[in-house]
């Protein structure tokens, strides 16, 4: 049975660690690939030698070189990649970012915790996302 594949596109090492911690709680096997910006992610997705078509993409909006919205526009215009499930992860609660991402057909929007030293004031939305949404997606993919 093929293990589900996740592509994490994130430029912040602390956020990568946070996602990895949350994913470990999923209780299911998966393969995680990481890219640090949209340009790197496109190279990985378009590399025919790798043949990577992830089950889910977790995408940060604010990144250098190519941000999440620019990346989304690129994959939505690519006939091999346009139907990928993409979840936006961001600290931004800007309505414009959300509206633009929704226009580009995202599967969901996750607000990252803003304060890593005191998460007690706000629940970790990544943990909630992994436990309630990503687990279902990955398990459904394997049925």
UniProtKB/TrEMBL annotation:
<feature type="domain" description="Response regulatory">
    <location>
        <begin position="5"/>
        <end position="127"/>
    </location>
</feature>
<keyword id="KW-0597">Phosphoprotein</keyword>
<protein>
    <recommendedName>
        <fullName>Response regulatory domain-containing protein</fullName>
    </recommendedName>
</protein>
<feature type="modified residue" description="4-aspartylphosphate">
    <location>
        <position position="60"/>
    </location>
</feature>
<dbReference type="Pfam" id="PF00072">
    <property type="entry name" value="Response_reg"/>
</dbReference>
<dbReference type="GO" id="GO:0000160">
    <property type="term" value="P:phosphorelay signal transduction system"/>
</dbReference>
<dbReference type="InterPro" id="IPR052893">
    <property type="entry name" value="TCS_response_regulator"/>
</dbReference>
<dbReference type="InterPro" id="IPR001789">
    <property type="entry name" value="Sig_transdc_resp-reg_receiver"/>
</dbReference>
<dbReference type="InterPro" id="IPR011006">
    <property type="entry name" value="CheY-like_superfamily"/>
</dbReference>
